[in-house]
Amino acid sequence: MRTFIVGDHLTGTGPANVTKEYIRCFPKGTLYQKRTSKLGRVPELFLNILRCDVILFSGYSAQNVLGMKIAKALNKKTAYLVHGAITLENKINSAENETQTRVEEETLKRADLLLAVSSKFADWLKETYPQYKDKISYVTNGVDFDYLKSVNEGFDNTSVERRTDRILSIGGGMPRKMILNICKAVEIINKEADNKLTLTVIGAEGKDTDAIKAYPFVEYLGLVDAKKKDELFRSSALFIQNSSFETFGLAVFESLMSGCSILTSQVAGALDLLPNAKDEDIVNDYNSETEIADKIKYLLDNPNHERLKSQINENEATWESRTKEMLNKLSELVNGKA
To answer: Rounded to whole angstroms, how far apart are CA atoms 187 and 197?
Structure first.
């Protein structure tokens, strides 16, 4: 079985990095997209679809619709690796886009198989798009734990001190990251405590940026490079991912491997790899600042990073393992079993 992988693998975004890992791990002879210009991509799509048995489209792109039309004409099977839900995310972020919605709907409709990047996200897709539930499955994203370990082993522990008063969150002013509710929770704690907490926020500016910056305990750093991000994980006591929608969430594992505890909303796909997470590790209601405050206080006194890290099955989570799972799904699709 020969696969053609279609999707960005160069820009360094989350979906692009996932695509890059699959390209690295797929068998020799796998085809993948190399052209970056719109003019060059069309003949490449046609020629490579002609040469393969199945096409894996990774991530949202308008080119997916064209590629799926070509595949249908050539009687080739298509799978769509769904990294997110652009219509919902645009709505949450007050940036609705009719063109993107139309492309997403057309892609979901035309694909022969829809593969979510976590089981939680697959459940959401089935509930949101019941008309496609029979063709929805998932392959949970892999994690390169060896790389994360090497990053932390490379740090000079004498130069980065763990701050017991620092909480870290990533997402900037993006509303779906629900960082404003973390701010409200920290405000509750700081009104009661002698030792005030600092909330460090990194990420691009967005609708909530000004409101987040208005809190006196917030350290808003905006976009930072990878080295600075790793330094923040190593110098923080707790990382909070309070997203209202999070299909996976690699930062959870970046945090744990750096020795920083985590608190994550129950929607996060990363929980696929943390099956033994306890209630105190999870925000059940991302809108409840009181629940968040209570769990922050508990986790600062009872760190969870060693407990959760010890429960991860690293061998099952490797990209090599995920690739075997992906190849099985694609083989079943080609052979009419999916």
So the answer is: 9
Does an H or E element contain 168, and which?
strand 163-170
pTM of the model: 0.92
What six digits make up the tokens of 91?
A: 């709505």
Give the DSSP H or E segment for 120: helix 119-128
Task: Write down the residue that tokens 């975004």 correspond to.
Answer: 13
Residue 84 to residue 267: CA distance in whole angstroms: 13
Torsion of CA 297, 299, 302, 307, to 10 degrees: 170
Q: Which residues pair with 114 in a beta bridge?
A: 80, 136
Residue of 251, 214, 216 whose CA lies nearest to 236: 251
pLDDT in tens, 55-95: 999 999 999 999 999 999 999 999 999 999 999 999 998 88
Question: For 152-180, b where at least 16 C-beta lie within 10 A, e where not — what string?
Answer: eeeeeeeeeeebeebbbbbbbbbbbbbbb
pLDDT tens-digit series, residues 203-222: 999 999 999 999 999 999 99
Mean pLDDT (the chain, rounded):
94
- Measure the CA–CA gap between 287 and 173, rounded to whole angstroms: 16
Distance CA 317, CA 142 (A): 5
Structure tokens at 121: 């996200």
